[in-house]
Amino acid sequence: MRHGKYPFVFSFLAIPVVLYLIYVIGPYAQAFYLALTNYNGFSAPQYVGSENFTRMFHSDLFWKAVQHNLFLLVALPLITMAIALFLAFMLNVGGRSRAGVRSGVWGSKFYRLVFFFPQVLAVVIVGVLFQQILRPDASGAVNGPLHALGVSPIGFLTNPTVAIWTVLAVLVWQAVGFYVVLFSAGMSSIPQDIYEAADLDGAGRLSMFFRVTLPLLFDTVQVAWVYLGIAAFDAFALVQVLTVEQGGPDGATTVLANEVYRNFIQSKAGYASAMGVALFFLTLTFAALTVRLSRRERIEF
Amino acid sequence: MPSSPENPTSPFGDRTFSRRTLLRNAAAASLVALPGAALLDACATGGGGGSTAGATGAKSAQNPLGVDPKAALDVVIFAGGYGDKYATDVHVPLYKKAFPDADVKESSTQEISTTLQPRFNGGNPPDVVDNSGSKQMEFGALVDANQLQDLSDLWAAPSVDDPNKKVKDTLLTGTIDQGMFNGKSYVFNYVSTVYGIWYNAKLWATKGWKAPKTWSEFITLLDTIKAAGLTPYGYAGANAAYYQYLVILTSAAKLGGPDILKNIDNLADGAWANDSVHKAAEAWAAVGAKYTDKSFLGLKHTEVQLKQNQDKLATYPSGNWLENEQKDNTPGTFEYAMFPIPSLTSSDKLPVTAIWAGAGEPFFVSAKGKNPKGGMEYFRRMLSKEGAQGFTKLTGSLTVLQGAAEGLDLPPGMKSSATALTAAGKDAFYYLFDGWYKDLDQELRAATNELFYAGGTADKFVDRMQKKADAIKKDSSIKKFTR
Q1: What is the CATH topology of the domain spanning B193-355+432-474?
Q2: In angstroms, rounded to a whole number, what is the distance separating the alpha carbons of residues B45 and A243?
Q3: CA-CA distance, A215 to A197, in Å (whole number)?
Q4: How many angstroms separate the CA atoms of A13 and A10, rounded?
Q5: Pairing of strands B336-339, B188-200
Q6: What torsion do the CA atoms of A245, A251, A253, A259 make, to the nearest 10 degrees?
């Protein structure tokens, strides 16, 4: 090892590490500390022990929010990835094999562009757009025709059982495009000769997908799973903008991040921090589990 | 205190704190040992120090509060439906005229809390704050942290227009009471708000419909309207359920007397579980079951108000800012007018003319600011006839200054609400719990939507609210207020 290597490395790392400590780790530590106080944002915090946590565990809204987060955590990655994998497969290898080279279906370049559109829109805009599309009165894009037919409108955002599915659907709609691109990139790095060999063995599209594409795409799928899991723990902006009474009706769509925010602006910063800590541990558990469960041998190609 | 009329709940949440960073780095963070207490000291929770003395000057007839004529004044206005032109064009010039050497800095924001909370924590608060809008700072927390200036000196000072009259004697009754927190006057509500049921006077004149006084007249009218093909009654469930809970509580107060609302504010036992609240909820649930359009549950206040301007909706509950808020969408065939909520029974404790009348748009002076006396003087100037009329001219809204509208040509809707306020006389009431206990406000919004639009019952409504009120009462972490 050459002399002077460490000072060199440290000099590069010092500034980012200090910034990271101050702007990321610092606020974390602070949140843990505030969770044990009655801080209201204006007067100095006083230590109250585990009071905030006791209150949190007895709060219906907290458990509703946790339920919704877990629902999104299961449903969002599954549905998004299923759709994105299907679309990416069709865009890249789903077409006819020409001279042994597999390509996407006709017009795949155009579709790829179109699928990516929702990703370009800011979440707030997506929220406002869907609010108008799903309007319950005659001006709604979906409910308008229903009104005209004399059918009672669907309360996409006002029916407590339907509302969370609406949130899920919009999240999926917005996410799919990005994962199509992600999976497409993964698929294009799979060597053509593997497909060629499978083709010669007489594999159809279905077995091609499950036996070749998916296993070789596993790393990308894992990354997608983690990203989507994080998105499911978030969902803050969409719920805040799209839903009735920000997480309603009656808490039917609220998620943890919204509860943190709501309590924070109601000057219950201590309690909000306690929820933040809960969210932290939930996310951590999810990340640890994902890494653990998806650990397997890499396929080199 | 009632929220600011415009934009009852902004959907555009403040997302300044880094959720994404928090989540993305969650895994990484666990790997790094948490740094010690050194970082904690550097956190945002230091709490404001700051002097409480502030600048002072010699008292005189022109300067009864003893303002330092040279001291700068920092004013922050919530730029909502009223804008901030009334401050820059009327109130600041009035102050500057009295104290030409003072440097008055006015700024405006729609995000009061986001902009100002760091300044309060840093011990550098502005002197005058219009703490309004959906991002208002919670008064309970501000009071708790001794950030608010006691305004009793202001109320006892002589008024600008008549030195023989104290400021407090120039105000509409109840103005000061509505800014009291546990016996101390901290908040100055500038705008006079009157709530009622609004309709299109021109349309009603052609149809021959008349404002109802009794409940049976009201129901008959709703039937007639329904037969005419209009939605008889409705409010916006998505963000303005509090317009309707105000109506339900008004009915309860008319039936059982204003103490019903006082008990609710004071979290008294059985404040909700009583006959008056139950009967009011029952009556309005029946209206919701038969005379509304259920899709309004998913609409915002502006969307429903537009339907009324298009004569698709006949009656709409709101405050007297409605006319001004809708002025760009009101066609020539539409003329706003309001009637008080009809009496439920013939044995109501209050007459039919009784209304919910309050003071809105809460201002305060920072106790820890550099110039609290100047802040109070600024309020005194706002309460001069010139200041109040200037506000009314620019915003189309009335102030809490008695008789300030005399000689002004008011728009028809405003005139109608001013008439209703005069007719009500001493039979005007209000509640304050929505400002004191945000949780109760939110529960009531949800319960009202359930009752009116989602087939709820009065029993469920009353149970639910009583349960929440009891829970708040028991919760030691919530600061309590009484009136």
Answers
A1: D-Maltodextrin-Binding Protein; domain 2 (3.40.190)
A2: 32
A3: 16
A4: 5
A5: antiparallel
A6: 90
Taking the CA of residue A89 and the nearest CA in chain B, the distance in Å comes to 28
Average pLDDT over residues A206-221: 84
Q: Are B238 and B442 in contact (CB under 8 A)?
A: no
A86: helix, coil or strand?
helix
| Parent domain of A282 | 53-293
pLDDT at A214: 84
For chain B, what are the domain ranges?
73-191+358-418, 193-355+432-474
**Which is higher by pLDDT, B188 or B36?**
B188
Strand partners, B171: B401
Name the pairing type of β-strands B73-78 and B104-109: parallel
Distance CA A254, CA A235 (A): 9
**Closest listed residue to residue B57, CA positions, set B27, B21, B98, B90:** B98
> What's the gap in Å between the CA of B454 and the closest CA on chain A?
9
pLDDT class of B7 with cuts at 50, 70, 90: very low
* CA pseudo-torsion sign B214, B296, B199, B244: positive
A153 in contact with chain B, both atoms CB, cutoff 8 A: yes
Rounded CA separation B238/B251 (Å): 23
In a domain, A23, yes or no: no
Comparing A3-17, A19-33, B165-179, B301-315, the range with the smallest average pLDDT is: A3-17
What is the predicted pLDDT for the residue at B29?
37
Distance from CA of B299 to the nearest CA of A (A): 7
ipTM over 0.90: no
Residues of A in contact with B366 (CB under 8 A): none
Q: What is the pLDDT of residue B14?
A: 35
Are B35 and A250 in contact (CB < 8 Å)?
no
Range 273-292 of A in CB contact (< 8 A) with B: 276, 279-280, 283-284, 287-288, 291
pLDDT at A297: 58
